[in-house]
């Protein structure tokens, strides 16, 4: 969005309080959603819970096309539709809720860079590796559609992602190389976290939500092998970090799950 | 001897030396020469000079009737019909008929030579246009092969490349030899449309095949169509209800249409009636969309005193979803605008959300029109005949039905909240295809949410209520 448009949207957003019926849209949890999208969606959910803002999760097969930027998840708040974590953080800031006032820009940029890296790794692992793509990814992505549309859409998306990965020079990476990179990234994060409860200060920030979203998804989702999650489990402080956030912010799910949970979470770490 | 050129069915010469010459050669014993009666009586007609680059069987079908003629008048009439049929095939640019007495060694005593002189269209014709309109410019390229395999098969290709959208279409048409009304065609296309009244953009990529055939007085068309539809919001300010419809879907449907048309013209008819009934069933041959759609169109015209025409028309339709998936915005009906219920903005009647019209699953619309020539008849006999004044009364309703209720409840829903309008205006006829209208409309029965266009409204199109 241009600067003027952003300023305008912030003004409009600031005028109204957070409604009760705010909704978050993502692809179908059981059959359709992929690793990278699940990670982003969980990050946004964690962030909103950290801010104490209620949001309902709604799964739609066409969530990706409904989104104004083409990326999931997006939230529908009052009259506004905002997608992706960055703009959502700014949107909530305009409404007066913010977690990262104390952070300086360098730290923020550093964390964002790490997460962008992890996201790209997930995309590469899913789409660029032929085995994973044909056995898991393409089928999941196009499961709501009938023949021959499912093949057309799946191949179209694969071509798009591979082109993007080519542009950043990652397309040639094999699965092993990707696992290696993720491992290194996690080592770096682990060192950064140390023994603190959260990455910055004593309070969680949106960057904690971002890290949680990605790591939790990797830990609880199985690709062709469990290797990725094993490598993260080897960093114990990251594991306990994820558990802590799950316990603190997603705890009430346990109680409401029997009543038909609306909250989109897969298997838990417990 | 004399020759008769029959290019059109002009009034016959009652007497004259041309016809009289034949009488000398005949020994029929009919010396009477009554001026209003036909003099000659020839039995045998042979056709010569068929030189085409096509298979001859398809052409002999069209001119076969000429062989049945019994006398000169018959020959002329049937040759005229044959000429029309040859032109209808779409392979000839020009057809001329020459009727002469039979000459040569194998000439028959009472024979006539009927010669069809034809000029074929070129094998490949192309066209290139640029179009500007609606904040968009585009370049349109067309290619046509009017007769590829020699039996009046037609292949057309059109490609449009614009600043905003690109679309193309390829179509193959083949009539049955001897029965031009029985034909089939295959189309492949990609079409993009922008619908600002719903803030929606729709891209359709599809393939369709259709068969047409006449049964007694009706014309039937059976079609299978497979379309990949992509819907998206036209602007960021689109309502959420339209945003929810964005995405891809596949529609595979079978449809059947029946048309009975006894009007003397498609635009501004003076007499006759039209009945069109169309059914479409989607979902049983694959695809995501699953529904049954019915719609009909009736028009009746009657000539009144002083060259004026009274015309009444009724349209209606219903969309029934099959299964639990709701209907898509691309399948629903829309109502309103200069081509349907006048006095309202384009497709701006019925269910809407934040200013975007979502269409409805059932509708009806009716109109009564009185067409009269322009007052004081300026330009009579020429340009003035293309214009008509017209007084109209339109009414209609568009809504969603609750399919759990019975038909009585449906009818009462369609009967409540009727929108209607009346007014007068001028109609201009464009060839035999389209018409332009400029009307002064007064809309009534406006419900909250409808957008009206009262006062002067301009409309251009092919199909009007």
TrEMBL record, chain B:
InterPro entries: Bac_surfAg_D15, D15-like. It is found in: Mitochondrion outer membrane. The keyword Mitochondrion applies. Residues 147-464 form the Bacterial surface antigen (D15) domain. Residues 1-34 are annotated as: Disordered. Pfam families: Omp85 (PF01103). Keywords: Membrane, Mitochondrion, Mitochondrion outer membrane, Transmembrane, Transmembrane beta strand. It is a multi-pass membrane protein. It comes from the Eukaryota. One of its GO terms (cellular component) is mitochondrial outer membrane. GO terms for biological process: mitochondrial respiratory chain complex assembly; protein insertion into mitochondrial outer membrane. Belongs to the SAM50/omp85 family. This is Bacterial surface antigen (D15) domain-containing protein. It comes from Electrophorus electricus (Electric eel).
């Amino acid at each position: 969005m241009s600067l003027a448009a952003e300023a305008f949207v912030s003004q409009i957003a600031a005028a109204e309080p957070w409604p009760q019926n705010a909704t978050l849209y993502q692809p179908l949890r059981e059959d359709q959603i992929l690793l990278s999208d699940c990670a982003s969606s969980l990050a946004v959910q964690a962030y909103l819970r950290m801010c104490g803002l209620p949001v309902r999760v709604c799964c739609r097969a066409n969530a990706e096309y409904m989104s104004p930027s083409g990326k999931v998840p997006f939230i529908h708040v009052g009259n506004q539709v905002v997608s992706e974590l960055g703009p959502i953080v700014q949107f909530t800031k305009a409404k007066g809720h913010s977690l990262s006032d104390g952070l300086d820009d360098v730290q923020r940029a550093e964390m964002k860079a790490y997460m962008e890296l992890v996201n790209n790794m997930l995309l590469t692992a899913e789409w660029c590796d032929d085995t994973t793509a044909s056995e898991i990814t393409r089928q999941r992505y196009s499961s709501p559609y009938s023949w021959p549309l499912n093949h057309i859409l799946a191949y179209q998306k694969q071509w798009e992602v591979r082109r993007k990965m080519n542009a950043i020079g990652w397309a040639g990476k094999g699965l092993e190389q990707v696992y290696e990179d993720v491992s290194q990234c996690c080592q770096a994060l682990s060192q950064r976290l140390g023994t603190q409860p959260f990455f910055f200060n004593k309070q969680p920030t949106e960057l904690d939500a971002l890290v949680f979203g990605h790591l939790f998804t990797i830990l609880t989702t199985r690709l062709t092998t469990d290797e990725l999650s094993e490598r993260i489990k080897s960093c114990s402080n990251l594991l306990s970090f994820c558990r802590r956030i799950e316990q603190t912010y997603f705890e009430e799910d346990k109680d409401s799950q029997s009543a038909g949970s609306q909250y989109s979470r897969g298997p838990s770490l417990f | 001897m004399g020759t008769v050129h029959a290019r059109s069915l002009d009034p016959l010469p009652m007497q004259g030396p041309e016809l009289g010459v034949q009488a000398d050669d005949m020994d029929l014993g009919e010396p009477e020469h009554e001026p209003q009666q036909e003099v000659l009586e020839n039995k045998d007609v042979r056709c010569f000079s068929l030189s085409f680059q096509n298979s001859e069987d398809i052409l002999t079908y069209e001119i076969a009737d000429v062989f049945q003629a019994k006398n000169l008048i018959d020959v002329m009439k049937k040759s005229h019909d044959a000429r029309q049929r040859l032109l209808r095939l779409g392979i000839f640019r020009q057809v001329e008929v020459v009727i002469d007495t039979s000459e040569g060694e194998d000439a028959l005593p009472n024979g006539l030579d009927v010669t069809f002189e034809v000029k074929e269209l070129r094998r490949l014709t192309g066209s290139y246009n640029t179009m500007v309109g609606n904040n968009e410019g585009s370049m349109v390229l067309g290619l046509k092969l009017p007769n590829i395999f020699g039996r009046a098969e037609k292949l057309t290709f059109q490609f449009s490349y614009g600043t905003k959208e690109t679309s193309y279409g390829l179509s193959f048409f083949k009539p049955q030899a001897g029965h031009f009304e029985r034909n089939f065609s295959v189309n492949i296309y990609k079409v993009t449309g922008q619908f600002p009244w719903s803030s929606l953009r729709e891209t359709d990529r599809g393939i369709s095949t259709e068969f047409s055939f006449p049964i007694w007085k009706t014309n039937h068309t059976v079609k299978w169509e497979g379309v990949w539809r992509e819907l998206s919001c036209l602007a960021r300010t689109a309502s959420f209800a339209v945003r929810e419809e964005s995405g891809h879907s596949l529609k595979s449907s079978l449809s059947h249409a029946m048309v009975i048309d006894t009007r003397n013209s498609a635009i501004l008819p003076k007499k006759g009636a039209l009945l069109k009934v169309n059914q479409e069933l989607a979902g049983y041959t694959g695809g995501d969309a699953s529904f049954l759609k019915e719609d009909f169109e009736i028009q009746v015209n009657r000539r009144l005193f002083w060259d004026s025409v009274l015309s009444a028309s009724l349209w209606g339709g219903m969309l029934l979803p099959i299964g639990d998936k709701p209907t898509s915005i691309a399948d629903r009906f829309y109502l309103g605008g200069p081509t349907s219920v006048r006095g309202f903005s384009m497709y701006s009647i019925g269910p809407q959300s934040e200013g975007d019209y979502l269409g409805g699953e059932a509708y009806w619309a009716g109109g009564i029109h009185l067409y009269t020539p322009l007052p004081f008849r300026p330009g009579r006999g020429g340009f003035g005949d293309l214009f008509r004044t017209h007084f109209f009364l339109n009414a209609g309703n568009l809504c969603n039905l609750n399919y759990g209720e019975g038909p009585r409840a449906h009818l009462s829903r369609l009967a409540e909240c009727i929108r209607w309008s009346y007014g007068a205006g001028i109609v201009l006829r464009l060839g035999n295809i389209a018409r332009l209208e400029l009307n002064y409309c007064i809309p009534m029965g406006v419900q909250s949410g409808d957008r009206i266009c009262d006062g002067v409204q301009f409309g251009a199109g092919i199909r009007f209520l």
